[in-house]
Design a protein that fits this description.
single chain, 553 residues, alpha/beta, 9-stranded mixed β-sheet, 6-stranded mixed β-sheet, 19 helices, 24 strands, 29% helix, 21% strand, binds zinc ion
């Protein structure tokens, strides 16, 4: 980073004492005018001074709280640019199994959960990696013993399949194969009995629908717990990519009736195909709704599905002959909606994964009148050069998820995603490095609950192009790696720029949204950073995580 500036703010600023002074080994302000500093003063939730530790000695008064973070590194609060924290509650019920690497770990985690519920109560889990079954197909047998005969439902990581216990099958009256209107399937063994593996929505719904749903109060508490977990990894804000749930606004209002949201949420509801003009007008009317730490702003759209499921939109079919059409069946209607939103000054974010989908989206956006409204494309999984060029020319922002690449594809291209695309298109996977080199704004995020939200690991993965803390895993297209600064920018300045906002820096007058890491993200091994403690997370100068035990009053 740039060296500390010569000029430091004299204090007391305009004659008033700060409420809080933060001291650290280094504060990466990401503000070119300030560079790196060692101390920040905060008043009324905003940064009022920056400088060296020596300067800070003169800042405080009797009422100023001082938090000395010692050797820690402070950065602007991290922004996850792609989240589903409310609709994700239903998917992410019970035990988070995403960290379990073998069946013993899965059994232990579920047995622990089962020990805390009644004999007939349900046990739930999510995020399960099917690789824990090795070469065997996933099945529900593991749940019967671990959950002590209770009904159990465990969602696999992709949310497209689940394993359930024998008791759950019995309660749902699932005894064998059935016909479904879509590709859903109840997997059975040689004698025709269900193995407990359920594929796709309709099959999963047979069991899910009899599992007691979370009550409204449970949803409120669950959301707070999820957002607190995010804050504990250094996240202070998120871009929410849907508002599917009928009660989403009521849930947010209920949280704020009892306290503050642990992170800020900018919520972009989803504009779907087939909306009538009346529905669309009502939908647009949601813009600007909000509370203390949440606001409805921007619109999400979705033009295709996913490569793994054969529902992406590719220029040429995948190796199984799939991914040939858009999810938004009439792309002209998509273009009409985007144009209408643009003319009303509403920024959009469109899910586009396949090369054809990305091309149609960026050409649609490039054709809009230049008015300063910043539009963005989500995912961008396989990107040809000619389409990348349109991003640059039209000033379109990108929003990408490093862990989708590092968790779900492999360097040797033997994974489902790469096999479906074939070599040439798989070699254009998650071109974060090329986009940054070309000058495109690239916001980073997790897509939680599709992938874990831990921002430290996501930043490390963007730098390493392999899962953090797994040095034995070969990197996927290492030439697409970004620098530590670029990765941090993806969670700070570029996250703001990607929605046409200014922020993500610790500048004079900026909100004091910041995080303190024990390990410096800009000056350490990325794996060490991924395992770093988060010592403090502040929003508007108020601690969300940490602080109490470190306060020198
Ligand atoms: Zn998403």
């Amino acid at each position: 980073m740039t060296p500390p500036p010569e000029q430091h703010s004299p204090l007391p600023v305009d004659g008033q004492e700060p409420d809080l002074v933060i001291l650290a080994r280094v504060v990466h302000t990401l503000d070119p005018d300030l560079g790196d500093v060692e101390a920040l003063a905060i008043r009324d939730g905003r940064i009022v001074a920056a400088g060296g530790r020596n300067d800070a000695a003169a800042w405080g008064g009797g009422a100023t709280r001082v938090i000395d973070l010692g050797a820690a590194a402070v950065t602007p609060g991290l922004v996850d640019a792609h989240l589903h924290p409310i609709s994700g509650l239903e998917l992410a019920r019970g035990v988070d199994l995403s960290g379990c690497e073998d069946l013993d770990a899965v059994s232990a985690a579920l047995a622990e959960a089962a020990a805390h519920v009644g004999a007939d109560d349900w046990v739930s889990g999510w995020g399960l990696d099917p690789n824990v079954f090795g070469t065997t197909e996933p099945h529900g047998g593991v749940l019967d013993a671990a959950c002590g005969g209770r009904p159990a439902f465990v969602m696999l990581f992709d949310a497209h399949s689940a394993i359930v216990s024998r008791a759950a099958l019995r309660l749902a009256d699932v005894v064998g194969e059935r016909e479904f209107p879509d590709a859903s399937r109840i997997v059975v063994d040689a004698s025709g009995d269900p193995t407990g593996l359920l594929l796709e929505n309709e099959a999963m719904r047979l069991v899910e629908s009899i599992r007691p749903s979370e009550s409204f109060d449970e949803r409120v508490a669950h959301l707070v717990a999820v957002l607190e977990g995010m804050a504990a990894t250094g996240i202070t804000a998120g871009h929410v990519m849907d508002m599917h749930d009928d009660d989403a606004i009521a849930v947010l209002e209920a949280v704020e009736a009892q306290g503050d949201l642990p992170i800020r949420l900018r919520i972009s509801p989803m504009c779907v195909p087939g909306m009538t003009d009346t529905e669309f007008a009502e939908f647009v009317g949601l813009q600007g709704r909000g509370g203390r730490r949440w606001t409805v702003e921007g619109v999400k759209l979705m033009i295709d599905g996913t490569i793994d499921n054969g529902t992406a939109w590719l220029r040429e079919p995948d190796t199984r002959g799939e991914s040939t059409s858009p999810l938004w069946l009439d792309p002209a209607e998509y273009a009409r909606r985007v144009t209408e939103l643009h003319s009303r000054g509403i920024p959009t974010a469109t899910h586009a994964i396949g090369d054809k989908a990305i091309e149609v989206v960026v050409r649609t956006l490039a054709a809009l009148q230049r008015t300063g409204i910043q539009h963005r494309v989500e995912h961008i999984e396989t990107l040809p050069d000619d389409v990348l060029a349109v991003f640059v020319e039209a000033g379109i922002a990108a929003s990408m998820q490093p862990t989708h690449c590092t968790h779900y594809t492999r360097a040797d291209q033997t994974d489902n995603w790469s096999v479906r695309l074939g070599r040439e298109r798989a070699d254009r996977a998650w071109r974060i490095g090329d986009l940054r080199t070309a000058g495109v704004t690239v916001a980073l995020g997790s897509d939680w609950p599709v992938a874990p939200y831990d921002a430290r690991a996501s930043i490390a993965d963007a730098i390493l192009r392999r899962p953090a803390l797994k040095p034995h895993v070969a990197p996927v297209l290492p030439e697409q790696a970004v620098s530590a600064l670029q990765a941090l920018e993806g969670y700070t300045t570029h996250a703001f720029a990607s929605i046409g906002a200014v922020g993500g820096t610790l500048s004079m007058g900026a909100p004091a949204d910041l995080v303190a890491f024990a390990v410096d993200p800009l000056d350490s091994d990325p794996d060490d950073f991924a395992a770093s403690d988060v010592l403090l997370t502040l929003i508007d100068g108020t601690p969300v995580i940490g602080a109490d035990e470190r306060v020198d009053a």
